[in-house]
Amino acid sequence: MNAVEVLGLHRSFPPSRGGGTARTALDGVDLSVGEGEVHALLGPNGAGKTTLCKILATVLVPDAGTARVLGHDVVGELAAVRPLIGCVFGGDRGLYGRLSARRNLHYWGALYGVPGREIRQRAATLLERFGLTAHADERVETFSRGMKQRLHLARGLMHGPRVLLLDEPTTGMDPVAARDFRTLIGELREEGRSVLLTTHDMAEAEAVCDRATLIDGGRILRTATPRELGSLLSRHERIEATGVPDELVERIRIHPGVVTVGAGPRGATRIEVSDRQALAPVLRLLVDAGVTELATSRPGLEEVYLSLIGERGMEVVG
Ligand SMILES: Nc1ncnc2c1ncn2[C@@H]1O[C@H](COP(=O)(O)OP(=O)(O)OP(=O)(O)O)[C@@H](O)[C@H]1O
Predict the structure, then answer these.
(1) Does ligand 1 come within 6 angstroms of the Cβ of 194?
(2) How does it sit in the membrane (predicted)?
(3) Ligand 1 within 6 A of 299 CB?
(4) 4-226 under CATH 3.40.50.720, yes or no
């Protein structure tokens, strides 16, 4: 059984009162997240990520198609689905600014029917886990964005859900907190929980996920491991070399197996070769010419994403 199973999901929003046309947020989406899997959903603004999370979180109903969480239908079996999922939607919604962090967690625990004795213990453990113990009894409205985000995560874990839906969970976090977040995702995986995580951050997806799904305009483009996505873009090897003499650039350009030669980052020359066999002779040419700053690599998830989604991917902001 999958943690999440989505088939043919459609959802549109009617035009606003001021006019305009209906917006299709999801246009026949299929997606599965295995038990214990960390799955990233990557896409630019308006791709449909939040709409999908909201349907899985049972707060929005699809127009067509089905969505199941651990085998339970999100529309027909609400009562079964809700305790299984923990949602972190970010922003200010769902946190009570006038209450302390601890009280927010107590409230949420009670709402989810966590036994009274356990509520205090769990809240204290989560506050510690998210580095909020020192501020546990301060009003949440005084918290920074990053602290609120960590409290959101703690809240999402209060009732021990088996499936976590995290919508842009690191938005607003500083880099240290974002790194801790990666550790947290690893821990959740070890605990056997499943995670569906939406993000704009390719490095984050690549670092934490088992598989990533690219979504754009309400349609799924690809689902694959970060590594597979990389090799989809190019089966080529890439060399980046600094200080390559011009005449050597020209010789390399016409060398068998070399596909492209262009500008790389920070003044480097970027050479793409079509297979590993072409790699060694080109590297030898460079080394023989005294080039010492050399790196070989394969394309990362970010390049795949940009190539599939195109320039619009660049508009994405956190
Ligand atoms: N309540 C709503 N009313 C009208 N249109 C909506 C509503 N919610 C979403 N949409 C539209 O549906 C599309 C998908 O939006 P959605 O929020 O799911 O995208 P997203 O991938 O989460 O983007 P972002 O990263 O900006 O949150 C967008 O065109 C959006 O304008």
Answers:
(1) no
(2) Peripheral membrane protein
(3) no
(4) no
Give the mean model confidence (pLDDT) for residues 59-69: 96
Q: Which of 265, 196, 228, 235 is nearest to 43 (CA)?
A: 196
Encoded tokens for 314: 């660049």
Question: pLDDT digits over 68-108, tens only?
Answer: 999 999 999 999 999 999 998 866 677 899 999 999 999 99
Q: What integer pLDDT is reported at residue 233 of this predicted model?
A: 56
Atom of ligand 1 nearest to the CA of 14: 4
* Greatest mean pLDDT range, 65-79, 158-172, 263-277, 280-294: 65-79
Cβ of residue 49 lying under 6 Å from some atom of ligand 1: yes
Q: Is 106 left (phi over 0), alpha (psi -120 to 50) or beta?
A: alpha
ipTM above 0.90, yes or no: yes
CATH of domain 235-297: 3.30.70.920
CATH 3.40.50.300 intervals, the chain: 4-226
Q: Check if 45 has its Cβ closer than 6 Å to any atom of ligand 1.
A: yes
* Any ligand 1 atom below 6 A from CB of 68: no
**CA-50 nearest atom, ligand 1:** 22
Nearest residue by C-alpha to atom 1 in ligand 1: 13
- How far lies 89's CA from each of 43, 44, 168, 316, in Å? 16, 17, 7, 18
Looking at ligand 1, which residue's alpha carbon is closest to its atom 6? 13
Shortest-distance atom of ligand 1 to CA 26 = 14
User: Residue 22 pairs with which residues in a beta bridge?
Assistant: none
Output the pTM of the full model. Answer: 0.78
Distance from the alpha carbon of residue 26 to the mean position of ligand 1, in angstroms = 9
What pLDDT is stored for residue 232 in this prediction? 60
